[in-house]
Amino acid sequence: MAYGRNIILAGNPGTGKTHIAIGLGLKACLQGYKVYFTTVHGLLTQLRESHAQPTLRQMELRFEKYDLVICDEFGYISFDKQGAELLFNHLSLRAGRKATIITTNLGFDRWEEIFGDAVLTAALVDRLTHKAHLVNMNGESYRLRETREMMKKRKTENPGASTFGLNYWYTSLVTKWVSEWFQNLHGRHYFFLMCNLLLNFRLIQQLIS
Q1: pLDDT tens figures, 91-123
Q2: Which domain holds residue 71?
Q3: Domain containing residue 113: CATH number
Q4: Burial of 140 (0-12, 13-18, 19+ CB in 10 A)
């Protein structure tokens, strides 16, 4: 914190990146530092709104004052040219001065996929990683592991209960999703949705068998 060094937590989903980032943020708060937590999507939404009003400079000044900024879920959505430039400029304000924690499911070699600009991507990676702590968090998903262990435990304690519970949960989920898709998309992707749900169901059955 005192040296303004960044932390990049990179790895596949479910390996605890967000939990560690939040834990570090809470520790910083307890030590009296000003901390700001946001998802990249949420930050980009605020930047677009500020740019349109315009109150972008006010937001930049607030952003610079935080001792630690945590940007979660970097890499889950791609940006258009304006979004990429806004995010680049905003994060660059803190480079070498204030600490930033970024959680991402993509390696640096794939960041160009979300920025869509090789030069911009190279410049951002260079600034974010300079004297930063890079943590490789690839591994098995904790959520998937817990789900598998829970299903096995239920199956052992009460044979047949796991399948019944899974079928009930899955039926409810299918009903909810299909309802939402019909309301929002008029059912035009119904076939693809059902295929995806059936594939996921087969996967879950394999995990508990």
Answers
A1: 988 988 899 999 999 999 999 988 889 999 999
A2: 7-136
A3: 3.40.50.300
A4: exposed
Measured between alpha carbons, how far is 55 from 103 in angstroms, rounded to an integer? 27
The encoded tokens of residue 28 equal 């910083």
Rounded CA-CA distance 128/204 in Å is 38
Q: Given CA atoms 51, 55, 60, 65 in this order, what sign does their dihedral have?
A: negative
Number of compact structural domains in the chain: 2
Element (H, E) at 137: none
pLDDT band at 187 (very low <50, low <70, confident <90, very high): very low
Residue 30 tokens read as 């307890």
Q: Against a cut of 0.85, is the pTM above it?
A: no
Of 88, 117, 136, the residue at which a domain comes to its end is 136
What is the spatial distance between Cα 148 and Cα 168, in angstroms, rounded to a whole number? 17
Decide if 1 is inside a domain: no
Pairing mode, strands 99-104 and 133-136 = unpaired
The answer to whether residues 39 and 76 belong to one domain is yes
**How many Å apart are CA 119 and CA 124, to the nearest integer?**
9
